[in-house]
Amino acid sequence: MTSWFDDEVSALERRTLSAQGSVNPILFYGSSSFTLWHDIEQHFPGYNVVNHGFGGSTLADCIQYFDRLVVPIAPRMVVVYAGDNDLADGASPEAVLSRVATLVRRKRDALGAVPMAFVSIKVSPARFAIMHRIAYTNLIVERALFEQQDVRFVDITRRMVGRGMGSLLELYSEDPLHMNRDGYRVLARSLFEYITGIERHAGDLRVGTALAHPAWRDPPERDAMPDALSVC
User: Which pTM was predicted?
Assistant: First the structure.
């Protein structure tokens, strides 16, 4: 188990403690796909969201720091993205599934029935060499979580890959491992659908009135019309 995240974890702890309105948030927890989501609040207006992504982390790291980064803030929902770094480090799909199960148990022991979402592992251009292991991992995790009442599998991978290979590449930055703004729109749309689905059973999770529409509903930048034509 690595310890080089300690400084980053400590910084996240300090930031959350000093932030206003961070009581019972929707917590985003996991690796750099969350760390680099700098405009996350704009995609979920009216919701209290806290981003505890720490770059390069694995599911094993998420388990290690769960008591520091998740439990103390008593989230009303936990959204997890992790697993691709585990596979890239050589972990088997079965090992990833075992780590998911461990994280679910930790959540239940500490937070009870608080909803938890596991976001599917994305197929990034940098990870094409292990895309079959990614697909199998997503399959067995989705099957394992299918009948769980408090934990859901949120599939962004089919939505991304279903667009075709050319469109998939357009969702990633020059760094072929991480999503660009259009990729984050796909992620946000899927998570917004999950959150509103939970609200139908658990009640409204918003803490205020949304003063703007979710950013994921904005058109992709490459399709945007020039300002001079926007009033036509």
Answer: 0.84
pLDDT tens, residue by residue, 46-87: 899 999 999 889 999 999 999 999 999 999 999 999 999 999
Q: What is the dihedral of CA 177, 63, 117, 77, to 10 degrees?
A: -120
The topology (CATH level 3) of 22-229 is Rossmann fold (3.40.50)
CB 188 within 8 A of CB 214: yes
Helix segments in the chain, DSSP class H? 6-18, 32-35, 40-43, 59-64, 66-69, 84-88, 93-111, 131-145, 157-161, 165-169, 181-202
Chain-centroid distance of CA 121 in Å reads 10
Is 179:31 a contact under the CB 8 Å cutoff?
Answer: no
- Phi, psi (rounded to 5 degrees) for 113: -90, 15
> Mean of the pLDDT values across residues 123-139?
94
- Hey, where are the domains in the chain? 22-229
Handedness of CA 12, 39, 28, 137 (dihedral sign): negative
| pLDDT range class, residue 225, cuts 50, 70, 90 | very low
